[in-house]
Amino acid sequence: MAWDIEWAGERASEAMRFLAEHYPESAASPELHPHQDAAHDAAVAEDEGRYLEALRGYMRAGWDAALRVRKGAA
Fold it and tell me: What is the domain range of residue 55?
């Protein structure tokens, strides 16, 4: 099965949109970078499972970063 670039772009857009809508504090977090790199590496390897796992890690890292910001503001 060939790698579907459109599908991959849609999944990445969904992950970024989710964080932007629910956890905007995490937008510039450097903690997201390793997950972005992992998603890129998985896309280059055309590995759907690794790609989705990297996007899940991206969203978890964004959630964690936002919670730290929110706790610091309290």
Answer: 28-74
Q: What is the pLDDT of residues 2-61, one digit of tens each?
A: 899 999 999 999 999 999 999 999 988 999 999 999 999 999 999 999 999 999 999 999
- Say if 59 falls within a structural domain: yes
HSE-up (13 A, CA, CB side) for residue 20? 6
DSSP string, 19-64: HHHH-GGGTT-GGGHHHHHHHHHHHHTT-HHHHHHHHHHHHHHHHH
Overall number of domains in the chain: 1
